[in-house]
Amino acid sequence: MKQVFSKKNQALLSELVRTDFKLRYQGSVLGYIWSLLRPLLLFTILYLVFIKFLKVNYGVPHSAVYLLVGIVLWSFFLEMTAGCVTSIVGRGDLIRKIYIPRWLVVISSSLSAVISLLLNIIVIAVFMILNHVAVSVSILWFPLIVLEMYIFGIGIAFFLSASFVKYRDMSYIWEVICQALFYLTPLLYPVARLHWPIVREILFSSPLSQTVQAARYAIVTHNTYTISQAFPSFWPRLIPFVITIVVFIIGVSYFRKKSRTFAEDI
Amino acid sequence: MSEDVVIRVEEVSKIFRLPHEKHNSLKSAVVNFYRGQKGYDLQKALENVSFEVKKGEFFGIVGRNGSGKSTLLKLLAGIYSPTVGTINISGSLTPFIELGVGFNQELTGRENVFLNGALLGFNRKEMSKMYKDIVDFAEIERFMDQKLKNYSSGMQVRLAFSIAIRARSDILLLDEVLAVGDAEFQQKCYNYFEELKEQNKTVVLVTHDMGAMKRFCTKAIYIDDGKVTAQGDPLDIADAYMAENIEAGQRAANKIDKSLVTEYKITSKIVEQTDNNVLLKISYSSKTKEKLYVGISVMKDGVSIAEISTPPDMALMGDGDIFYPLDTTVLNGGVYQIDAALLKLKNKGLLDFTRVKARFVVKGNDPTKGAAIKLDNTWRLKEGV
C-alpha cells in the first residue's frame, strides 16, 4: 500500500492525467470550454426532447434537474468504462518499453472521467440554482454515492482493459452491454411507470439504478423512488452493494493475473 | 543476497507464446478451443540464464540479433516476467530500452519534458529545478514551446537523451541507445558513459558495438540463441563475438541473391590466409565503360586503421578480379575487417561498397589487444636513430 501511493507513482499519475486532459481538446478553437459546453448542449437536447416534447412526467418537482443528474452520472459511468477499455493497449508503447505499474494506466484513464464528472457537477449546480432546488442535508450522501459508482466502474474497467489486450472484441461487446444498461437504468423514464414489482426489483439490483436514484434523492428531491421502496425488506437492499464489491474484486484480480504478460501480449 | 550483488539472475527461462495469426478475437479463441488447438507456438527466448551483477560494475550483454539479449533486458526491467527462475534486484532501476519513450507528438517540448521526467520518477517541482539544465544540454531552447511533431528527429533524440541522463537510479539499463544519432551525439553518449563509470554507477549495457563494450564494460556475458555461452572479461567476449560473426557472415555470403546485381557491384573475400599474410580477392563489375577505381580500408572495431586504393595507371573496367596481399605481421591479435569500395576515377564518387564478407582473425595473445598495429621492440636509452 505504501508503494501504491509512493511519490513516484503520484508524480506519474498526475502527469498522465494532465496529458490526457490537455490532449482531449487539442486543436479545437474553444479548448477547455468544450468540457463544460459539451454536457450542457447534450443536456439541452435531452431536455427539449423528453421534458418539452414528450412531456415525460417523473412525478417529481424539478424534472429538468432530476433528468440532468441521471444523465451526468450515466455519462460518468460510460466514460469511465468505455474510456478504460483501450487504456492498456493505448499505452502499449509505455508498457512495452518501460516499467510502470499497469494499474496506474487504468486509474489515470478513470481519473479523466472523474474530472469530467466534477465539471458536470458545476453544470448541475448552476441548474439547481436556476430551478431553486432546496438543498437538504442529505446532499452529504452524494460523494459516497459517487464513490460507490466509481468502485463499480473501476472494477469493470480493470476487467475490460485486461481482456481487451487479448480479445479486441471486448470494446464492441461492451458497447452493446452499455446500450442495454442504459435502458435498464431509469434515466429517461419514471420507475413508478413499471407496474410489476419484479421488474423494479431487477432494476434495483443493478448498482447503476440504485446509485442514480440515490443521487437524485440526495440532491434533487426526497420524492424519488429509491431502493428502499423497491425492496420493502432490508436484506435484499444489499444486493447492489454486494454486486459492486464482487465486480470490483473480480476485476482487480483478473487484471492482476493478466498484467504479468501485458508487455508481450499487446 | 551478498551485499555487493545488486542484480542476481537465477536459472531464468522465458518462453513466449506466439499466436498463429494476429487475430485477437473471441472467435479464434472459441474455434481453437473446440478444435483442441492451442492457437499458439511456444518460443524459447531465454534458457537457463544465470549471472550476477555487482555494485559499480559496467556490465555488458552482447549477442547477435535475435539472441535474446533484449528480452533479458526487459526481464531485468520488470517489463516481462520470467517463465521460470528468479530475478532479484536491490535498489532502484531505470531502463532505457529506447530514447523518448512516452513522448507525445501533440504536446510541446516543455510538456514532454515534464511527462518524461515523471516516467523517471521526478515530480513537477524536481523537474522545474532541472528544466533549464535539460534544455541547455539539448540546445533547443527556442523550440521548447512548439509541438514535438515540429521537431526534427535529431532534436527529439537530443531532448530525450538530455532528460534520460538526469535519472538518479542506482542501476541503469541501456539498450543500443548508442546506435542512434550522429557522431557528435555518439560522443555525448560516450561522455555520459565515462561519467557513469567515474561515479561508479551500476550499468547494464546491451550492445553489439564491440568497441563501446571493450571501452566501458568491466564484465560481460555473451548470449547466443537464448543461452549464456561465455561470461567474464569483455576483451575475451568481444573476440568470441567477432569470431562468431565471421562464421555467420560467411554462411550468409554463400546465399547472395544474384538478382540483386545492379549497375555497379563490388564484393570482397579472403581467399587465403597464412601466418603472416592475408590474400584479399575483390571482384568488381560494371555495366558502363567508365574507368573504375578500387579502394580498401582495414577496419578494427569500426575504425579504419589503414587504407589503400588502386593507382590511376591501373585501368579497371567492366568485370574483373583484383587481388591484394595484406601483410598481417604488423597487426596485433584481434578481429579485422576489410571494407572495399568501387569508385569513379575522376571525382572519387562512391559506386558500391561492401564490408560484411571480408573478415579475418589475427591470432595472438598480446596483452595490448586493444591496439591494432604492432610496434617493434626498438626501445633505446639514447637519442638518435
Keywords:
heterodimer; A: 266 residues; mainly alpha; 72% helix; 0% strand; globular; B: 385 residues; alpha+beta; Rossmann fold; Coagulation Factor XIII, Chain A, domain 1; 5-stranded antiparallel beta sheet; 35% strand
What is the CATH H-level superfamily of the largest domain in chain B?
Answer: P-loop containing nucleotide triphosphate hydrolases
Order of helices and strands of chain B: EHEEHEEHHHEHEHEEHEEEEEEEE
Instruction: Specify Rg of chain B, calculated over alpha carbons.
Output: 25 Å
Order of helices and strands of chain A: HHHHHHHHHHHHH
Unreliable spans of chain B: 254-261
How many independent structural domains of chain B?
2
**Percent helix range of chain B:** 25-40%
Helix content of chain A: over 70%
Percentage of residues in DSSP E strands of chain B: 25-35%
Structural class of chain B: alpha+beta
The average pLDDT of chain A is 91
Quantity of strands of chain A, as a count: 0
Strand order of the largest sheet of chain B: 5-6-7-3-8-9
Structure annotation, total helices of chain B: 8
Provide an overview of this structure:
The complex is a heterodimer of chains A (266) and B (385). Chain A is mainly alpha-helical and 266 residues long. Chain A has one domain. Chain A contains 13 helices and no strands. In chain A, helix 3 runs antiparallel to helix 10 and helix 6 packs antiparallel against helix 7. The radius of gyration of chain A is 19 Å and the shape is globular. The model of chain A has no long low-confidence stretch (mean pLDDT 91). Chain B is α+β, with helices and mostly antiparallel strands and 385 residues long. Chain B has two domains: 241 residues, Rossmann fold; 106 residues, Coagulation Factor XIII, Chain A, domain 1 (Distorted Sandwich), CATH 2.70.50.60. Chain B has a six-stranded mixed β-sheet, with helices on both faces. In chain B, strands 12, 13, 15, 16 and 17 form a five-stranded antiparallel β-sheet that branches. In chain B, strand 10 and strand 11 form a beta hairpin. In chain B, helix 3 crosses helix 4 and helix 3 runs parallel beside helix 5. Chain B is globular. Chain B starts with a strand and ends in a 23-residue tail after the last strand. About 2% of the residues of chain B have low confidence. At the A-B interface, helix 1 and helix 5 of A face helix 1 and helix 3 of B.
